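Figure 2 data, in text form.
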Amino acid sequence: MTSMAIDDEPIPVHRRSIALVGLMGVGKSTVGRRLAKRLGLPFADGDIEIEAAAGMTVSDIFAELGEAEFRAGEARVMKRLLAGPRMVLATGGGAILNSDTCAALKARAVTVWMRADLDTVAQRVQRRDTRPLLRGRDPLEALQAMAEVRYPIYETADLAVDAICEALETWWAAAEITT
C-alpha cells in the first residue's frame, strides 16, 4: 500500500474546488468568473496566476523560455492553487497534459470539461494574438491537433458541458439583468 502525504489525500466532493478544463477559447475564464461570483467563491485564472508567478506574460515565457519551462511553471502553479482553499479555477488548456496536475485535479477538484464546436472556438481565438500555440498556424488546424491529444484526457472530467461561447455569454448577461 502506498503512503499519501496529507496534502495529496482526496477531499470530499462538497469541499473541492471547481476546475474548468477545455481547449483555449471555450470560455473557461468568462464562465469561471461568473460561476465563482454566483457561488461566493474566489476565482483563479491559471494563466494569470502563471504570469504573476513568473513576472512575465505567457507569450514572453514561451518566447524566452520555451513551452517546456512554461509547462513546468504551470504544474507548480496548479499544485499550489489546488492545495489552497476551495475556489473556481480556470485551468490553461494544456494543464491536463501533466500527469501530476491531472492527479491533483482528480483528488482536489470537481473537473468540468467545457466543450465547444471547434469552428466557433477558432473564430473566437482569432480575435487576439496572445496565444503562442497558434502563432503562425491556422487556428482551426491547430485546435484540431490539440483536440486529438487532449480530448481523451478531458473526457476523464467529472462533468462535461457543451459550451457555445457566444450563447453562453449572452445567457450570463441576461441572468445578471434578472438578478
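Caption note: The helical segments are 28-39, 46-54, 58-65, 67-83, 99-108, 118-125, 139-154, 165-178.
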